C-alpha cells in the first residue's frame, strides 16, 4: 500500500523529515512543499535515496523557486495539479508538519 508523504517543514529546523524517512518505503512517494523544499539538499534525504534508489522524490516547483532553491536532477519539480493527481493515485496521504 503506497503512501504519499508530504513534508512541509525543513529538516534543518525540525525532526519531521527524519521521522518520515525512518518509516518510508521504496514504493512510497515523497513530496516537499513550503519550507520542506529546503530538504532537497538535506544529507538525511541523500542517505535515504542511496538506500532506496526507487523512491520517488518530488518538490513543488513554485515553492522551491520562491526560496531560490536549486532542484537536484534526482528530484522532480511538480505543479499543484501534479500533487492533486498524486493524492488520487496513491492509497494514503500523510502530511508531516
Automatic annotation (TrEMBL):
What single Pfam family name could you report for this chain, choosing any that match? Answer: DsrH
Database matches in InterPro entries: DsrEFH-like, Sulphur_relay_TusB/DsrH
Q: Which GO terms describe its biological process?
A: tRNA wobble position uridine thiolation
GO terms (molecular function) for this protein are: transferase activity
State the Gene3D superfamilies in the record: DsrEFH-like (3.40.1260.10)
Which UniProt keywords are present, listed alphabetically?
Transferase
Tagged with keyword Metal-binding? no
Q: Name one GO cellular component term.
A: cytoplasm
Reading the lineage from the top rank, the first entry is Bacteria
- What's the protein name? Sulfurtransferase complex subunit TusB
Query: Which species does this protein come from?
Result: Litorilituus sediminis
Amino acid at each position: 500500500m503506497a503512501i504519499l508523504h508530504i513534508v512541509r517543514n525543513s529538516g534543518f529546523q525540525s525532526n519531521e523529515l527524519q521521522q518520515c524517512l525512518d518509516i518510508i518505503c521504496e514504493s512510497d512517494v515523497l513530496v516537499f512543499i513550503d519550507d520542506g523544499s529546503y530538504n532537497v539538499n538535506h544529507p538525511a534525504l541523500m542517505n535515504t535515496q542511496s538506500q532506496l534508489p526507487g523512491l520517488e522524490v518530488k518538490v513543488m516547483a513554485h515553492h522551491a523557486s520562491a526560496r531560490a532553491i536549486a532542484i537536484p536532477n534526482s528530484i522532480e519539480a511538480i505543479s499543484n495539479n501534479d500533487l492533486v493527481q498524486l493524492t488520487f493515485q496513491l492509497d494514503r496521504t500523510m502530511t508531516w508538519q
